[in-house]
Write a structure and sequence with these properties.
The protein is an alpha+beta fold. It has two domains: 196 residues, no CATH class; 212 residues, no CATH class. Helix content is 26%, strand content 18%. It has ten helices and 14 strands. The strands form three sheets. Strands 1-2-3-4-5-9-8 form a seven-stranded mixed β-barrel. Strands 11-12-10-13-14 form a five-stranded antiparallel sheet. Strands 6-7 form a two-stranded antiparallel sheet. The protein starts with 33 loop residues before the first strand and ends with a helix.
Length: 467
């Protein structure tokens, strides 16, 4: 088990006894990579402003690069004192370029993800700082791509910002979401079939309100649901599978589900490509609603990769991700291929943070407990779980995972291993010195997380075992 730590006030030091570089905080004995960013302009939500990034590993500079930097996040940006940042690698002229960071494949878009916390009100969504990291590791262990992530220290303009999770941005890329390129002029019968990335999510941020003053994004809640025919399309069915008779767009209702164009981006996707992917989703939904689950035949499976849907269900339910299925929900379709769910994303308020759904229930039943939420779970998941064939495939997959990468030892072992790593490298102490919330017992928070996971695994064993 991990050790006991209590945290109080902030403390930075001026010198780490390094002759070549001065760090804003004492990192003696720490194995965490250390990022220093120098930026002359005020960081904005949009657009990115020029900066210089330096990466230190064991206090030795291993990379220096021009970058663009901006704040990222919508709800988290408004609520959290510890802001997250998106960066893009630039060449000397300011054009996008690929760089090698840590042990990641070449890429240009990365992010520093911080905990969502408020110092004055003394609360933090994820005191363990493990939520994202664990979910991505488990999803990767299932055989899927998940954003590579590394715990790092971050300093900006000589000020220590805390411990962050350095992550890849989800994007179309042979080393990331591996689908075919789709150019605006590729509209023939074969090419128009892919690749696509769609997302069910809010719309807030620089994409819907670019160029606003930074203060604007602190209270732009109205931008969360600015769905238009340019950036999205609406399902023809409501969250319960009934046909929608109202016109799309305008003021969103909680029964509506919109799919955002993530790739190709809204400003690049052609009208023919929009029509294709909209019709594909519609045909899948019709098949899912109309299939007779008392028979042996299925047509909805012609449209989706069922294995990916099963695994997406498992990872969201294991982590009890209350944002799952209805927000930060990615899906993708390759050329000539079926629709696949994933990658998993955004586990800030997973692992029973905030309640909402009882521990002995599925997150897909979110609508039963939060019927007035503006973002409800789309009907796909309840309908799929009505299918004995889907449940049978889920049962087979679940118990295969439980006998391997999802055993109690593997699941709880990763929790302990990661927490111990952060403690022994001083990361937890440095972070909570920088962001002091009410003193708490980190070991107790880890114990709570372990207990939640142990109970969740046992409940899922019982529930799925009954199928």
């Amino acid at each position: 088990m991990v050790g006991l730590l209590l945290f109080g006030c902030a403390k930075d030091v001026d010198d780490t006894k390094n002759d070549e570089e001065v760090f804003a905080v004492d990192i003696s004995g720490s194995q965490l990579p250390y990022f220093k960013i120098e930026v002359a302009e005020v960081i904005q939500n949009e657009p990115k402003v020029p900066a210089v990034l330096k990466l230190f590993e064991n206090k030795i500079k291993t990379l220096e690069s021009n970058i663009g930097i901006e704040y990222r996040g919508s709800t988290s940006f408004r609520l959290s004192d510890k802001k997250s940042y998106g960066i893009e690698a630039w060449d000397a002229s300011g054009a996008d370029t690929d760089i090698q960071l840590l042990d990641y494949p070449l890429g240009e878009d990365f992010m520093f993800t911080g905990q969502v916390l408020n110092v004055n009100e003394n609360w933090v969504w994820d005191a363990t700082f493990l939520h994202h990291y664990l979910g991505y590791k488990w999803y990767a262990a299932m055989g899927h791509y998940a954003s590579r992530s590394t715990f790092v220290d971050l300093e900006i303009n000589g000020k220590y910002k805390g411990v962050y999770l350095f992550m890849e941005k989800l994007k179309e890329d042979g080393d990331r979401i591996d689908i075919d390129d789709l150019l605006p002029n590729e509209n023939d019968e074969l090419n128009v079939t892919g690749g696509y990335i769609l997302k069910i999510d809010k719309t807030a941020g620089g994409d819907v309100a670019p160029g606003q003053p930074l203060e604007y994004y602190l209270n732009n809640w109205g931008d969360d649901a600015k769905y238009t025919q340019d950036n999205s399309f609406r399902s023809a069915f409501d969250s319960f599978g009934a046909p929608l008779n109202s016109e799309p767009y305008g003021n969103k209702t909680s029964q509506e589900t919109y799919f955002l164009y993530e790739y190709p981006k809204a400003d690049r996707i052609s009208d023919q490509q929009k029509a294709y992917i909209q019709n594909y989703i519609h045909e899948f939904e019709l098949a899912l609603l109309n299939d007779d689950f008392t028979s042996d035949s299925r047509t909805y499976t012609n449209f989706i990769d069922v294995e990916s849907f099963v695994d997406y269900f498992i990872i969201n339910e294991l982590t009890k991700n209350v944002d799952g299925y209805r927000l930060s929900t990615y899906m993708h379709k390759d050329k000539g291929g079926k629709l696949k769910m994933g990658p998993i994303w955004d586990l800030n308020i997973a692992y029973n943070i905030g309640g909402r759904v009882p521990d002995d229930n599925w997150i897909i039943n979110y609508n039963d407990f939060e019927p007035n939420d503006l973002w409800l779970v789309h009907f796909w998941w309840k309908r799929l779980m009505q299918d004995p064939q889907f449940r049978s495939q889920l049962k087979t997959r679940w118990f295969a995972l439980r006998a391997s990468v999802f055993s109690d030892d593997q699941i709880l072992g990763l929790v302990d291993q990661t927490a111990t790593y952060l403690i022994e490298n001083g990361a937890i102490e440095r972070n909570y010195n920088r962001w002091p919330i009410l003193s708490f017992d980190y070991n107790d928070r880890i114990s709570q997380l372990r207990n939640f996971l142990s109970n969740r695994l046992n409940w899922m064993d019982s529930e799925i075992g009954s199928y």
